[in-house]
Amino acid sequence: MPENPLAQLRTAAEAVRQQLQVNSFDEAAVQRLETFIEEQRPLLTKETTQGVVVALGAFLGECLVQSFKGEWASAPDGTTGVGIRGDLFFNPFFRVAMQLEKGLSESVVGFFASMPARLAEPPKKRGWI
Amino acid sequence: MAASPAHAQRVTSAAAPPPTPAPVFNPAPYRATGSVGSYQTPDGHWHPVRVGTWQRDRVYLGDIDGQGVRPYFPAEVKAFVSIGDTVAAVQSFVLPKKHRLVAQGFARQLTRQGSYTLFQYDHTENPTLLSSLTSQVMLLRRGQEPLLVVPTKAKPYRALMLKLLGDCPAVVRQLQAGAVHPWRDTQALLATYASWQNQTASATRPITH
Lengths: 129, 209
Description:
Oligomer: heterodimer
Distance between the termini of chain B: 91 Å
Structural class of chain B: alpha+beta
Strand content of chain B: 25-35%
Strand order of the largest sheet of chain A: 1-2-3
Strand content of chain A: 5-15%
Strand order of the largest sheet of chain B: 4-3-2-1-5-6-7-8-9-10
Number of helices of chain B: 5
Number of helices of chain A: 6
Radius of gyration of chain A: 14 Å
Order of helices and strands of chain B: HEEEEEEEEHEEHHH
Shape of chain B: globular
Structural class of chain A: mainly alpha
Helix content of chain B: 25-40%
Shape of chain A: globular
Number of domains of chain A: 1
Largest sheet of chain B: 10 strands, antiparallel
Number of strands of chain A: 3
Largest sheet of chain A: 3 strands, antiparallel
Radius of gyration of chain B: 28 Å
């Protein structure tokens, strides 16, 4: 029976956590993720990138969920990401893909570090369900 | 001799047409819309069903007589067939634009050739003829491997097809000729490849008596 997509994402995130040998889904884990992406960048081909983006994106998403009280959510276009505070929606798969494509100038650590400032902004109208 | 009143009543009753039943009003809403088809549950079994409309993330199914219509989601329905179309549940693929993850959805099966299945997925909620020009992607699955989004730009498309189907000389010739259009020609390429695979398998199979 096809699994609940949320369970699949959490399973993927947990598998990456074990592979990265980190204890939790926190800032230190995101720093380890950044290093791992830099190690993998030269080894990836276009065909293998998609699977890596899904797995590492699930891990980064779970770090957002657990560090900033987020929740896995659906955007109006039906795609999956992390909703926080009822008005912010983030696509962790895009952040991972950006670092894979452009390197440290689009680091996942930089994105993660920008979260407190983003959360300090006044709430906007909720755009996800 | 005149018949007795009791006899006359009996004869009249036996010869009369049966009473017409009064129409019964059913207050329940009746929705026999959609078409008769079948759907596959996650355990692999197929069941007859009336298939209503469907979108990227749900399909409306009811009994054959149109009762009990409700939305079903990809976790509940592995595939459904309606008016000659097969639509299957697909999972975990990334849309090329902005790397958006589709955790699960329904996609129309375009063809199944050998170990390859080709799907068409539309990521808009209510696709129109105009929106579908830019909102559709082709998904390719080999066996039970993860789905691949088929590139629509010529160079990455050729690279992917050569990687997957490059052991078939006829496919390589077509790809190298450069006249292949992803949306128009992928089904034909997969058919050529499957046919070549079958011929190769037949040629190498030992003859037994």
